[in-house]
Amino acid sequence: MHDDTRAYNAGQAPADQAICARLAEQIDRALPDAENKVWHAHPVWFLDGNPIVGYSKLKSCIRLLFWSGQSFDEPGLEAEGKFKAAEARFTSVSDIDDALLQRWLAQGRAVQWDYKNIVRRKGRLERLK
Prior knowledge:
- This protein has helices spanning 3-10, 14-30, 98-110, and strands at residues 35-39, 42-47, 50-57, 62-66, 78-79, 86-90.
- By secondary structure, it is α+β, with helices and mostly antiparallel strands.
- A hairpin with a 6-residue loop joins strand 5 (78-79) and strand 6.
- Helix 1 runs antiparallel to helix 2 (14-30).
- It starts with a helix and ends in a 19-residue tail after the last helix.
């Protein structure tokens, strides 16, 4: 885990720290080859420069976001935004289903839309995997 991600997690309230720590641990376990950094003020994991998953503090929860999540063949994620992103929200570490999270992370590796080149393609996404 990147030092900036550790600092982000440490800056959260204790209950949110626990959620962030669990998410980071599970993401690192599932995506050991991913690059992790704080991007647009929150922790994100990238494969080959393409954002896969990240989390952020919202007013009432921690939001886990999968950039290609609307294309996953797994339940439990809600559509977010106008592209292919989907999210799950957590208010307690007990809300996290590790087995389901690992399936989402496997889908994150297998199903990717090319966000890395979205600006060059003028907002048009192409599927990578």
